[in-house]
Amino acid sequence: MATRKYGRASGRKVKRAMHEMKRGKLRSGSSGRKVKSRKQAIAIGLSEARRSGAKVPSRKK
Fold it and tell me: Does the residue 29 lie in any domain?
């Protein structure tokens, strides 16, 4: 059985980011623009999870 790639905390962060995006409350980093794309909302949730120390694979460069 394979181990989990993403922890539960990271899933919660992504869920919260998606929720905010759907309601028009999620803003991007430095510019502060409203986030419209689903992919960007997921990326924001994962980066927040990384900062908090959750189990998330490192970002692909």
Answer: yes
Is residue 17 within 8 A of residue 42, CB to CB? The reply is yes
Domain-located, residue 42: yes
Handedness of CA 11, 16, 21, 26 (dihedral sign): negative
Give the 3-state secondary structure of residue 34. Answer: strand
26 and 44 in contact (C-beta within 8 Å)? yes
Q: 29-51: per-residue pLDDT in tens? A: 899 999 999 999 999 999 999 99
How many residues would you count in the chain? 61
**What distance in Å separates the CA atoms of residue 50 and residue 41, rounded to the nearest whole number?**
14
CA separation for the pair 49, 37 (Å, rounded) = 19
